[in-house]
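testing teh design pipeline on a random one, pls ignore if ur not involved
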């Protein structure tokens, strides 16, 4: 393996970096989906709170129903605060995983660029070797013709 080309030695590292990027991208997509679901749930709670409040304000009811409505709205408000906290935690998690993905993406791209650079150098070296061999062969033919002419 010591005679393997640099590009061949780097290829497993580049493939690993690419797999890592893909795995982080999948986790990022999952966290994005979770974040959106939590935001949707918060929106639903807020909408329900507003609808319920408007409905109770437009109704004339006795003191007992009014107290029950206020208690229910208080519980809904608490649920909204808790859901807001959940959304904030999800947003922070989303920011973290996004940063991880960006780092993994940059690493993967760097490995790909390095691999391509190694391949270009190897192609140039191969082309130069082939040119030298061709020149050597032409030179040998010229010398042979001169001797046998």
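output:
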């Amino acid at each position: 393996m010591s005679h393997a080309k640099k590009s061949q030695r780097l290829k497993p590292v580049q493939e690993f970096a690419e797999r890592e990027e893909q795995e982080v991208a999948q986790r990022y997509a999952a966290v994005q989906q979770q974040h959106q679901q939590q935001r949707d749930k918060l929106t639903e709670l807020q909408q329900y709170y507003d609808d319920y409040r408007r409905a109770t304000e437009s109704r004339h009811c006795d003191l007992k129903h009014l107290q029950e409505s206020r208690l229910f709205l208080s519980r809904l408000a608490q649920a909204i605060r808790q859901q807001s906290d959940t959304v904030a935690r999800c947003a922070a998690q989303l920011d973290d995983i996004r940063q991880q993905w960006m780092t993994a993406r940059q690493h993967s791209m760097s490995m790909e660029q390095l691999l391509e650079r190694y391949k270009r150098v190897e192609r140039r070296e191969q082309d130069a070797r082939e040119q030298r061999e061709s020149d050597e062969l032409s030179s040998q033919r010229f010398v042979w013709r001169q001797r046998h002419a």
